[in-house]
Specification:
With about 120 residues, the chain is an all-alpha fold. About 50% of the residues lie in helices and about 0% in strands. It contains four helices and no strands. It has helices at about 15-30, 40-55, 60-75, 80-90. Helix 1 runs antiparallel to helix 4 (about 80-90), helix 2 runs antiparallel to helix 3 (about 60-75) and helix 3 packs antiparallel against helix 4. The longest helix is centred in the first third of the chain and has 19 residues, at about 15-30.
């Protein structure tokens, strides 16, 4: 922990992965024929991510905020989902703690037991 691998070119592989993912989503977004109201937000936040990577000091909280805004802007465009997931995975590489891969538990003790009638809390 705390150590970062470096590629042959001296670049952090996480940064290379994020740069590639951002570039892919930018290309796919630019090539997507449909106009939607939040396209500009997605483009702006992708530019923010690209600038952070280029500066060499990406801030995890700011990257996650950008990712949330991008997902909100393009999340309903299913054609962009694979590229969006690649950006998410690349941002997750910068996290200190591993993210859970399974479904999140519901409530503090997991799913609420069903009441008679089959509805939780009924």
């Amino acid at each position: 922990m705390g150590q970062t691998r470096v590629t042959r070119s001296g670049e952090d592989p996480r940064a290379a992965e994020l740069r590639a993912a951002v570039s892919r989503l930018r290309r796919e977004l630019a090539g997507h024929p449909a106009e939607f109201g939040d396209r500009g937000i997605a483009e702006d936040e992708l530019a923010v991510l690209a600038a952070m990577v280029a500066a060499g000091d990406p801030e995890v909280r700011r990257m996650r905020r950008s990712l949330l805004l991008i997902a909100g802007a393009v999340g309903s465009v299913s054609a962009l989902s694979p590229a969006l997931m690649q950006v998410r995975a690349a941002v997750d590489l910068f996290s200190d703690a591993p993210r859970p891969t399974g479904p999140a538990p519901l409530g503090p003790a997991g799913p609420e037991p069903s009441a008679p009638g089959g509805f939780p809390g009924a």
